[in-house]
Design goal:
It is a single chain. It is built from 19 helices and 18 strands. The protein has 418 residues and is α/β, with parallel strands linked by helices. The protein folds into 2 domains: 286 residues, Alkaline Phosphatase, subunit A; 107 residues, Gyrase A, domain 2, CATH 3.30.1360. The strands form 5 sheets. A 7-stranded mixed β-sheet has the order 2-18-9-1-8-6-7. Helix 10 runs parallel beside helix 12 and helix 11 runs antiparallel to helix 12.
Length: 418
Amino acid sequence: MIEKEISQFLPVPDEFTLPNYADGSIANVPATVAKLLGVNLAGLSELPEAMWKPMGDVKRVVLLTLDGFGWNLFQARHSLVTAVSHKATITNQLTSIFPSTTVAALSSLWTGSAPAQHGLAGLRLFFPEFAVSAGMLDFSPLFYKAKDALVDAGLDPETFLQHPGVGEQLGNAGIPTYAFKGKEIVNSVLSKIHGRGVTESFGVVSFADMLVQMRELLHKRAGEPLFINAYWPSIDTISHYHTWQSAAVSAEVRTIFDQLKVEFLDALTETARQDTALFIVADHGQELTPLSHQIFLSDHPQLEQMLFMRPTGEPRVLYLYTKHGCHETTIEYINTKLGHAMTAVSSQVALQAGLLGPEPFAANVADRLGDVMAIMRGEYSLFTEAEREWAHKMIGRHGGLNHAEMQVPWLGFRLDGW
């Protein structure tokens, strides 16, 4: 489903960017990596040739995902990244997926499929089979923190994503995959879900540590085909608390790209560079969500009465489960009373329109999306009363369809030409 086709079925405010699953989203990156390595990946197609063909023939690909490094941040702080970006062979823009949230986006980057296809369609999801809503970072019930409780209840990390992983598919073609991420998450359930078929996972304690370990691996495996998939979260973490426009985020961007140049690009041995490409992408960007633009369901009792349980999703896109007979009235209420702040659509219509990706859909994905989606506009966010205690802590968020959330950079470098 392409952007134009999605827009035929859904209201699309001017500030929205629709995901381009046809050939221009982060979910198309894995097939692109595989194509460069001579493998045809099952799933969505690769990006247009102009976005990868100029890299020439390569045998090794490094993909660095910088969480929250949106196109808006890349453009606004371009002077901080020029030490690296001026040597890019490819500079382009992609869309994120929907919802533009990390667990869904990383799952797309680890499978080459869209959220509706791999099944991890949001930060907080309802599991009718376990009679519980749970968070997908720690697989814990929302009402009581119990890390990995869903696994104890029967969720199988090996089969939860209903699409073969990149590591599995490349491994079947004889190409090893190596994962690099923070030491605190390298053995998490989510990492196990993403890591099917990965040859080895490296837990790191800092970005510099990641760069050093990656360059050592490239040297150790010089001349051998491989794929390195690296993830670093600090830009997103800081942006949540200070916004992407803050001095703290600018300092972090400068630090990341300076370290990337000094400790990786400049420090690689000649043999480690040979036939190697580096790509930099983001899972999503961030939108400003000031306290003045927070909305609480408890301030709209008529709307709250139409729901039979607390919403899932997250404050920028909520999945609403409506009482019998309240489906259309819920949509009407939101679009008339709260239309300045959000747009509501039938979840089934959104799914069939391709907003979360084309068919075939993962089993049970419709159950995860509720009856109605409330997608935030502008700088708004929506909370339940139970979330009021911590809602003020973050003033930068993502998950929705705003340009700032959905547009991300795509940079490509040929390392033996550095």
